[in-house]
Fold this sequence. Notes:
This protein has 13 helices and nine strands. The protein is an alpha+beta fold. The chain folds into two domains: 1-244, no CATH class; 246-403, no CATH class. The strands form three sheets. The chain has a five-stranded antiparallel sheet. Strand 7 and strand 8 form a beta hairpin. The chain starts with 9 loop residues before the first helix and ends with a helix. It binds zinc ion. Zinc ion (ZN) binds at residues 58, 60, 63, 65, 117-118, 120-121.
Amino acid sequence: MGKLNRTYTDHELKIMKEALNEVMTKYETNNDYILERESDKKSFLYLFKGLFPKKRTCIIPECKNRSVRNSHTIQKAHSLKIIAEGNHIYSPIFNKKTLKLEMTRLGINQASTFPGFCSKHERIFSILENSKDVDSEEAVRLQIFRTISRELVVKKSELSQLLAMKDHYLKFRKKKISELFYAASSEKISNMAFPKSITLDFEDKNLAAMNDEIEKVSSDIPFFTSNFFEPLYRFIFFDGFSDDPLYIYKIEDSNKIPVTLAGRGSFHIEKDGVQHEIHAILNILPLVDRTAFYIAVELKNREFLEYYIAIFQQTGLPGLNLAETWMMRGSDHWFIQPSVWDELEDDRKEQVLKDVLDVGHHIAEIYDYSIFNSLRRKLTATHEEACESADPEVRRQIDSEISKL
Ligand SMILES: [Zn+2]
């Protein structure tokens, strides 16, 4: 209830109480009541400053140096170049002006860059950019380390922006409720003072969503730091850790799948009646004549990961299904060959961009629609030729792949 500057009569106080009740009832019934003005709604979107923080420090523990602006998560000289056309690739990026996720054309110099390491630590990764052997054990561990590092930089920036947004929202809400209350009562009360402090402790749906997200990101950061980043950091930077701290599974596909991805995903597996959520670091690296998939989990989750891989091995086109599922249910940090995207029908493009935003699935749920249409057509035709006297199981797998087109 408001504290007011002058003394009001009992009648005036009654009017105010009714006005405040009316405003609060409207707001509690429809939480967006205070956000009805388009400009208010937009003011929140403009708070979002992009994925990365302005102040950048090297992510390596104890290093206080400023990070370079553009560390590549995915090697420019290899994976990105292999799928690029005219040195460009496409990536799904949220457009603040149109408020839509859009497939955006990027040069390979910008693609996958983030402010992660200082110039001294960045040099460790020059082995990656310069080496031809991109899938050597050393290169793969550096690649996974960079992927985790980027995830952490993104998460930390996300957390500080969420906290700033919540703060902005609480101030905005207080001001808005005060204005609405003042508008509803001041016409009936002469010389009414603008209320200075209205205390609100109601958690509306916008606030609840922000609080949920803050809680999630706040717990993700220490989890990924202590279970993925730090063990791999010690493994790479110090001697004496001869055993891999993570379980890394490599899947090779003999086809050139025109996408590269570096991010994280999680899958749910049930064992002995208990649901386990397993977090994984995902990388898809296109090579000159094939595609390498890497999935890294904590050592204790080895068995779950093998079970996960088996799900895909039971499909007709494991590589394509893994790629599409990781892109749609795992990370949105991926880059696709422009002509592959351009040849999709508009309906499919729309569906894919909508599904990228849908976070209600995990990476053990195979994506239902085809993205790599030409390759899927070619491979299913080859399979069909190869199995003239169709084994019913193979036939079922081929049909299932065709139905995704
Ligand atoms: Zn450093």
